[in-house]
Amino acid sequence: MTTTNGYLLKGRIIDGTLNPPVENGALVIEGERIAWLGAARDLPPLYADRRLEVIDLPGRTLMPGLVDGHTHISFGEARSEEENALYTPVEFRTAKALYYAKKVLQAGVTSAFDAATTYNIAQAVRDAIDTGMFEGPRFAVSGKQLTNHQGLEDSFPNEMPFPVGQSAVLVKTREDLVEQIRFQVKDEIDAIKVSGSNDNLITPDALGSSAFTLEEFRIIAEETHRLGKLCSVHARSREAALWSAQAGFDNLFHASYIDDEGIEACLKNHCVITPTLTLLVNLVEAKQGNAGASGAAAFRAEIEAASVNLRRAYEAGVPLIAGSESGWSPVPYGQWHAREMELFVDLLGLTPLQAIHANTLAATRLLHRFGHEVGKLEAGRLADVLVVPGNPLDDIRLLQRPKSFDYIFKGGRPVDRTPPPPRQRKWYERTKIFLNGLYEYDETSGSGRLVQ
Ligand SMILES: [Zn+2]
């Protein structure tokens, strides 16, 4: 292992704010933090004596490590609700999550907000990384989503018990809402996440209304904030977005059908929105040409609505945060973390600089414990820095090629870029389908054929 006194990086500096970039910039890393940055010509002479390792590659951009506003590190690239809720032992899920965390870091994601876990895996992954045992992003994590019979994750028939492996907990009374928040805070979550509405993936009437009442959202927000935690909600429908914003939730996920009243409530209560359009767009793309696929039209309609409504929200002043939804099979780990920026530009009309801000400094609003330490290139902050060939302000898609990055620094150290070995799936990591279709007997030919 090489030892160094620190690094002197040179290149165009995009600092994570909305300030214009500094061309011909320089940035000094000492220990785990940024010691200095600015125009290269202003570099204080004292750094010349420090024998820093100089990284000066032509045409490079220096920018903060990405802050992914929505991951599910415990979901293991599940292909179905059943796979996520029912199958795979918790011990194996945890091992997988640690394996995948490294891939997320190698995509340039140095911090992330985990938006619901199965079991308490997200806390364990966060702590295993924080304590230096495994490599991965710095995580702030939600617990299991608080849901009820109309919320996302209560997906199975009433005749069976609510699965313990589900990434939610079924809450039946208002007293139990408060009890569950206190229970999860004791389990050291960073944020409470609520299933405020259902989801097109699960039920066709997903977007009709809200799972919880305004009064219930208020109970949740009040107790969560009393205990000093962030309050976030899965809110695809108009009512769920409106009522959670009126109740003072900090962050609304999706908010595809938010209207002017909801936008007004967000502005009044300083709520941010994390859309995760990447999941919807990936689903539509992946399902194209897949004859057995259902739901593509519904996803397309939601993308269209979100494109209009979220653009209005952003233009009105509601901050947007970029999150990828990595963890489900449409969004495998380590691959799509920077796509949301492209979609913010193409679908919502943000500039590339605004999109980068949404995936760096703006996203630190979800990271209560350490948000002030990351997300921005600034002297004193942790040196989570990407060295990127080219200028992402000219082509935001450059950030979707993390293998081309010259360096990913986390806490002042270059991240090991060796990809983890490919892994095989265990037999229990799947929905147990005997055969995807009917093997029908054809009397004329006397043989069988598979009908989907
Ligand atoms: Zn999610």
UniProtKB/TrEMBL annotation:
<dbReference type="InterPro" id="IPR032466">
    <property type="entry name" value="Metal_Hydrolase"/>
</dbReference>
<dbReference type="GO" id="GO:0016810">
    <property type="term" value="F:hydrolase activity, acting on carbon-nitrogen (but not peptide) bonds"/>
</dbReference>
<dbReference type="InterPro" id="IPR057744">
    <property type="entry name" value="OTAase-like"/>
</dbReference>
<dbReference type="InterPro" id="IPR011059">
    <property type="entry name" value="Metal-dep_hydrolase_composite"/>
</dbReference>
<dbReference type="Pfam" id="PF01979">
    <property type="entry name" value="Amidohydro_1"/>
</dbReference>
<feature type="domain" description="Amidohydrolase-related">
    <location>
        <begin position="61"/>
        <end position="415"/>
    </location>
</feature>
<dbReference type="InterPro" id="IPR006680">
    <property type="entry name" value="Amidohydro-rel"/>
</dbReference>
<protein>
    <submittedName>
        <fullName>Amidohydrolase, imidazolonepropionase</fullName>
    </submittedName>
</protein>
<keyword id="KW-0378">Hydrolase</keyword>
<dbReference type="InterPro" id="IPR051781">
    <property type="entry name" value="Metallo-dep_Hydrolase"/>
</dbReference>
